[in-house]
Amino acid sequence: MQIYWSKLTDVVTESPEVKTFFFECPEDYTWEEGSHIHLAFEGFNTGEKPDRSLIRHMSISTIRDENTIGITTRIRKEPSKFKQILNAMEIGSEAAIFKTHTNVPLKRENKNIYMLSSGVGLATFRPLALEYLNNNNNITKVHSLNIDSSKDYLFTDIFESSAEKNLTAHFVSSRDEYYQEAEKLTADKDALFYVVGSDEFLRQNIELLLKQGIPNYQIMLDKHESQREKLFAN
């Protein structure tokens, strides 16, 4: 397993509770849109077993062309040990990056793509939107629907409606409005539905999509196959 030790180069506050941490991109390191990594801190692998409190599965919110590894996450008032360490990192300090994988690459099947997300889950879709804007071949249109009760909506410079680019974005702040809008999207029976959020959010969306006649192979989740099977089984 290749482990990269990468320096923190910048931290950007996206909203009162959300920050993006930017790490150096190693020369030989690459990834696809929608990828996640394992991010870990010094000491995570010094014992007989990895220290799980120092490791977290995180989505990359940047694309390779940006030449930086962006990690966008919510930092609450009483964060976990991992988030405390991450938030206290100084520019130039290092973190380990390994096990890069994507479950939600941008599919180019001449279909409409709907991106359904909750809160900071939108960070997973930022690279997909950028890749689409850079190259829209074999994608009819992209629509993003995001629910965030804080109303501090993320990445509005990218997720903004543009008729010219066939990209539309809709931000809502209540669950009722979100599910009303999501149900409207299911009228498009041939589309691909990408869903990112908590397991509860995923289950609720899966239930809605299946009930409205969207087959499971048109529902994309940022989950390994075994995790995906469990979510669809519930």
From TrEMBL:
It is an enzyme of class 1 (oxidoreductase). SUPFAM superfamilies: Ferredoxin reductase-like, C-terminal NADP-linked domain, Riboflavin synthase domain-like. Keywords: Oxidoreductase. Its EC number is 1.18.1.2. InterPro entries: FNR_nucleotide-bd, Riboflavin_synthase-like_b-brl. The keyword Oxidoreductase applies. Gene3D superfamilies: Nucleotide-binding domain of ferredoxin-NADP reductase (FNR) module, Translation factors. One of its GO terms (molecular function) is ferredoxin-NADP+ reductase activity. This is Ferredoxin--NADP+ reductase. It comes from Jeotgalicoccus coquinae.
